[in-house]
């Protein structure tokens, strides 16, 4: 019966700081309780602004087309949610920047917020189902009035991509022009400056590089892993060679050779640099090692939440791709493929963006290529290598319950 | 790569009316094509208003709480969609009012728009999943700043309920006050005036009353159905009475008696009036007959789309109930049940609104109670009873492709 | 509290035919009512078979891996639903074959069942979210035991694709082998024989070719449309040529030329045959005309449900594509891209199947390319061209309530 | 193009143990690779059993009703997923029982599996949308053949409820009979014996009771919290009393009194016992303290994953309730409310099960009632109270990578 979830409950008693609100109450004596002091629902949400922003171009031009309202509201809802994703993204980047997530106390916050972004993206993917209740014919009726407004102009979506780490030089150009050319003035600057900041990808990379256990003079995960794998492959080969000759044996040997190639390449830093330069890898060599380590030891208390973070990052990547794909499908439905008109169509362009090149955390997906039997994973002696939480070392003067965002 | 579905495609060539836009083009010579003439994305969507409406009360009071942003954006997204639902609802009511949907050409539009409302409600139900990423603790941190803003103040949700037909006198009062008391001035008037207009329920009722085939001097569906059912029940009874005595026989007889009661009540107009007066039925007796008729003959071309409409109306009812139920769950999670504090809690109140009393089209659900074997349904001879589409009678001067909303 | 939706309600009274059940009741005297006569839940659903079919290969080989159970259940759920989709698909094809859907009374059934298929596909797309709770590491632990079982062996999915109309010769070969090579014996034959039957695409094509209004000596939709469009384009050109020279004018002229090309191609039957031969169109020329006609006149009572059918068919196409795309994403997550190992990886193969070539009803999507202003659409005079429902002509001896599936 | 997600990839090389499979390969020389050795897709999934289990009662009785197939498949899909939920549930209960989750290394597994259950329940809630494509009329046509099979007979759902901890004595009786009466023989015993085992609720309770920090002679969380809250409330009262007399003041004082009551009750062990005995609380007093502690200190590395677990448990509770609610809605749609027939209808019964009494982890929801300002939460000095992970103390002989399920 209420249009709003759980706002409500009367004035909160516990005010940690002497508040203005109390005085206001004084001045409102005798007024109906529901609006006594404080703020009312519609004002709080600034509904006067939000709900007066639906102006139909078709109506302006004297030919009101019913469905244009859906078009506007859908896009506004997308933009609202993009704004909130940016809010979460900036807060996560901040947590990484300010604390180097040295303080593991922040990890729950980081994971929860990245998870929240995935939940929003899921909703945004669902949202296409609403837009798709509009048929191509309905759209055709007002399409002309929108010209030349174009979806390529959503500043927030571009910001979002940039801040996560979609590589500028890997973007598919549209009609041979850089995507940033669509923006001007303030917008163009906002975009440019955001590209100067550390991306989520870069911050995660730096964090992965600090994974405890990578130290060559310590646990030396990478060295131990390489030794184990080489030994393992050698033994496999030995075993296979003893088999009687057969087609099966040849197949197995061929497979083994491929595997050996894969791992030889993995342990070759120059190969990694080469792939980096081509954009086929995005994480530094050391960060890649950290990510693989977190995968192998994900059940260690120290690595449980970091593992969840890696999983959530992949989820974001995947959902952005699904969002783009659903977008492509909707466009196809609305304007057709325009095959035969010549010139790159909007549809064909969008189609090309649903590619692995646009994946930011593709390296995390590709870790699956480097899995090995558990027996090959270097053993961990937690008595010796503790991978302590930094949080357990902070000094007692730390004010553990300061407002989260003031830090 | 684009933040917006399928806006785009360059200026549309086909302009049925000489447009202003052309002249504007003239004045924009030499400007970058992307913004040449017309309107740009951000302006079109009025993003300056929409994206500047997120003001955190906690931040205003010097204690920025991160999650308040989610709270605001979620509610704004709800309100945006409520606005669009009202847009569709008003257009459907208009189609009923202006045309009495005498013109069956409007039926596709009516069904499509009601269907669109269900798709939006599905999204709104999903949307709780995003809000639920906020824990009770996160909410607690800024709850005090919202006071006394309350969800009971969402004007649009109340309008929506009123326009669909949630009965004013069946609403559960909150803290013994009428829900309209939460609104003041302009809002209160808007609400009051909307309550004077014909509700969707009433318009559907009138439309159902006109179902072809109900005429007593024509096909006389109701009379024929009553006769068939009475005959059928009599034969069932006869058959049962010939069975040997057994527990099974007694059970079957008891069941038959119940069924007979159900149908005796169905064919008793006074009983219907009684249920109407108690709010247990909402449709007039004749409309109920029309609805049952459409159900039984739904495969007749004449009744296919009407049947889809009845189904879609039930869907709306069900989804509003699910929305309320999910709302209740979220509230429980956020503020607990407050059992033991005395006074009706927000949770307990909301719980009570998820009741069948709030169903508007409950009568359509209850039709399932009155189904009978197909053999009992009065036969239709389409040579005699054609139930013609009015549309096929309209005169040729009718301009069939005038703008839909100008009629 | 119940594991089953709405089974229940006691013995139904109304039995149109004297049933065996009654006699059974006699023999069950004194037995607890819940199992008296008839059939019990577990037997009805054959749960002994369904719930004993989860045998973990890892467990068989002495190394039980917990997550293999999820893998099995997920795939079994997919197969269950595939079976049901085939059930609906076959019934729809039957309705088309037996009745040529000449009897419009079947249209509601056809549309409802196609719609149901889309609802199932939506669920199947969602279902990946459950499978994705399994990480690459979890999968790696039992992957070896599955060899060489392969998803390319799902007979039902291939049947489903074949019956809808995925073109055999358009399929991407896997490792240079025809997809049918994966099946043997009975399975291979089932597949082959299904490929001999009329596909949904073909049946829809035949139905579209019969669209009333296409007759050259009748309404002659295609001829009238061509004339209107040619006239319209000529007038546009005339208008543009009178403009003062400018960049804008040149752009508009270029656009107009493209549009003219598009429509010239549309009205060229040879061009259509050429595209057909390349697999870029799938519908016959006449069927394409019918589809466009239904789009333009969708609000006519006669065309409302046909229009819904076309929309639902596009939905199926889109959802199958989304299913494939989600599949690809899951595979990427589970086994990586295997880039660098050489040889076509499963991932790369799957990636290639998410292409427009696999769309069956792509022609319906591309109709959006051929939309024109409503003023250009040939006017319909319903007094002259009635497009009557065949149903209204059927003779009175037709048994309108025979069991639907006995026909 | 494949009916199966990511099965595939050829024989895995890395076999930790000498496998039978190799020898089999030998015997299969020359056979097409796709079926060489090992197991094929259809056999692996035992599709012969799963896909032959759809027998329509209506067809058996000579009157095939198309939609009965949907009814069967939907229920079988439910049962398949119920089986998997039981699989996860049993594994989680095992992890608790065997390790007392003393070994925090299991926490990721526990949380992930509980999370997976929530993902499945989400799917099951969605699944009603498929069933709802069947109208009441479609159902009516075969309803009689199902008698007396009843959803109340889903053994697995009852097991699932029992194992999670739905209280036997809190269940709503159906037609005055205990729900267990619906089962007989083996099924009844399975159910009974499952009720002897420790429920998830009990195991979580025991785990919560061991929360580090509850020790009275240690950090003494409960004692400190009580002292802080009492002090806080006293100061609030003091502050309020200094206000000038006004309606506002009275309101605030009334609120404060209610709050004081709430907390007085919270710190009263006898009150807790009383609520326990009435079934209004389910967790022991000490477990409740542990849960509140985890909530307040959820950002401590030690408590991050435990906090996620509590959240996931609430999610399960909520989703089971939503499942029941959606079930009720579907039933209402299918069979109506049967109002007027007398006797408790299936619908009315189901309606009653969607109550808070059926919530298992209601105590966790109600924690929201006991939140206090962060300043009132006892400060934690991590130098003194380390809440160490047990895992960090295990001895080096622990085989950290033994197969997970052999422990």
TrEMBL record, chains A, B, C, D:
InterPro entries membership: Trp/Indoleamine_2_3_dOase-like, Trp_2_3_dOase
Keyword Nucleus: yes or no? no
**GO biological process assignments:** L-tryptophan catabolic process to acetyl-CoA; L-tryptophan catabolic process to kynurenine
* Highest taxon in the source lineage: Eukaryota
Could you tell me one molecular function GO term of this UniProt entry? Answer: heme binding
**What EC number(s) does the entry state?**
1.13.11.11
Q: In which pathway does it act?
A: Amino-acid degradation; L-tryptophan degradation via kynurenine pathway; L-kynurenine from L-tryptophan: step 1/2
Q: What reaction(s) does this enzyme catalyze? A: L-tryptophan + O2 = N-formyl-L-kynurenine
Q: Which Gene3D superfamilies match?
A: 1.10.287.3810, 1.20.58.480
Please provide an example of a Pfam family that matches this protein in its UniProt record.
Trp_dioxygenase
Q: Relay the cofactor remark from the entry.
A: Binds 1 heme group per subunit.
Q: Where is the signal peptide?
A: none
Keyword Transmembrane helix part of the UniProt annotation: no
Q: Which UniProt keywords apply?
A: Dioxygenase, Heme, Iron, Metal-binding, Oxidoreductase, Tryptophan catabolism
Kindly list the cofactors needed.
Answer: heme
User: Which family does this protein fall into?
Assistant: Belongs to the tryptophan 2,3-dioxygenase family.
UniProt function note: Heme-dependent dioxygenase that catalyzes the oxidative cleavage of the L-tryptophan (L-Trp) pyrrole ring and converts L-tryptophan to N-formyl-L-kynurenine. Catalyzes the oxidative cleavage of the indole moiety.
Q: Assembly state and interactors?
A: Homotetramer. Dimer of dimers.
The protein depicted here goes by the name Tryptophan 2,3-dioxygenase
């Amino acid at each position: 019966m209420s249009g709003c979830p759980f706002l409500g409950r009367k004035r909160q008693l516990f005010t940690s700081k002497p508040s203005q609100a109390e005085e206001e109450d004084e001045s409102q004596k005798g007024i109906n309780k529901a609006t006594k002091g404080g703020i009312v629902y519609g004002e709080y949400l600034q509904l006067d602004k939000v709900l007066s922003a639906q102006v139909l171009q078709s109506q302006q031009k004297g030919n009101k087309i019913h469905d244009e309202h859906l078009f506007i509201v859908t896009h506004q809802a997308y933009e609202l949610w993009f704004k909130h994703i940016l809010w979460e993204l900036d807060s996560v980047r901040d947590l990484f920047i300010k604390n180097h997530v040295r303080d593991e106390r922040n990890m729950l916050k980081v994971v929860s917020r990245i998870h929240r972004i995935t939940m929003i993206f899921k909703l945004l993917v669902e949202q296409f189902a609403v837009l798709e209740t509009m048929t191509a014919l309905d759209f055709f009726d007002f399409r002309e009035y929108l010209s030349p407004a174009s979806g390529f102009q959503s500043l927030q979506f571009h910001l979002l991509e940039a801040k996560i780490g979609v590589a500028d030089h890997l973007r598919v150009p549209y009609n041979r022009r850089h995507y940033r050319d669509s923006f001007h003035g303030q917008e163009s600057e906002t975009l440019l400056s955001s590209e100067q900041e550390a991306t989520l990808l870069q911050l995660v990379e730096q964090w992965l590089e600090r994974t405890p256990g990578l130290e060559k003079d310590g646990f030396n995960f990478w060295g131990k892993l390489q030794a184990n794998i080489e030994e393992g492959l050698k033994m496999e080969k030995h075993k296979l060679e003893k088999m009687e000759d057969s087609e099966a044996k040849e197949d197995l040997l061929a497979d083994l050779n491929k595997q050996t190639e894969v791992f030889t390449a993995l342990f070759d830093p120059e190969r990694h640099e080469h792939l980096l330069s081509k954009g086929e890898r995005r994480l530094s060599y050391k960060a890649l090692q950290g990510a693989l380590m977190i995968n192998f030891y994900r059940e260690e208390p120290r690595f449980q939440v970091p593992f969840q973070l890696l999983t959530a990052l992949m989820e974001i990547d995947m959902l952005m791709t699904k969002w783009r794909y659903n977008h492509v499908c909707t466009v196809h439905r609305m304007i057709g493929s325009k095959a035969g008109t010549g010139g790159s169509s909007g549809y064909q362009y969008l189609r090309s963006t649903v590619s692995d090149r646009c994946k930011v955390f593709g390296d995390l997906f590709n870790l699956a290529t480097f899995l090995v039997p558990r027996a090959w994973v270097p053993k961990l002696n937690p008595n010796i290598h503790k991978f302590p939480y930094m949080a357990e070392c902070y000094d007692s003067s730390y004010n553990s319950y300061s407002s989260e965002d003031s830090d």
